């Protein structure tokens, strides 16, 4: 019998709220700069769009991987660690890249945490899959 995820949903909810925040911020930038479509070669618009898009590129795969891990009923500490890596990683990355004078250390830390989540989840799934 499979159990419903219990650790992942609050992290998924927080990531969804962060996505909405990034979306609203991008829409606000569009309105302020009067750019309906594309970026019109405006650096601020390009930055807002990339922060939003980068989040949208990594979070879905991260959530799928985390759901697969949780379905295998890992130790709760492992699930929290992997979820925190994704949540903090995406937050740090968004913050770092959002700055006009980019805060590169936040970008790097954010990607490192995101990759830790993806690689850790992958290794866990491979290890538990091979053990069957």
UniProtKB/TrEMBL annotation:
Organism superkingdom: Bacteria
Keyword Metal-binding found: no
Any one annotated GO CC term: membrane
Keyword Transmembrane helix: yes
Transmembrane segments: 6-24, 108-127
Location(s) in or outside the cell: Membrane
Name of the molecule in the record: Glutathione metabolism protein
């Amino acid at each position: 019998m499979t159990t419903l995820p219990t650790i992942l949903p609050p992290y998924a909810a927080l990531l969804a709220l962060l996505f909405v925040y990034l979306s609203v911020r991008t829409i606000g930038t569009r309105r302020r700069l009067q750019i309906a479509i594309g970026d019109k070669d405006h650096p601020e618009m390009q930055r807002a769009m990339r922060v939003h898009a980068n989040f949208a590129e990594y979070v879905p795969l991260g959530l799928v991987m985390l759901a697969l891990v949780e379905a295998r009923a890992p130790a709760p500490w492992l699930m929290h660690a992997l979820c925190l890596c994704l949540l903090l990683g995406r937050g740090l990355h968004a913050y770092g890249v959002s700055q006009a004078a980019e805060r590169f250390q936040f970008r790097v830390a954010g990607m490192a945490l995101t990759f830790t989540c993806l690689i850790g989840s992958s290794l866990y799934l491979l290890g538990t899959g091979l053990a069957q």
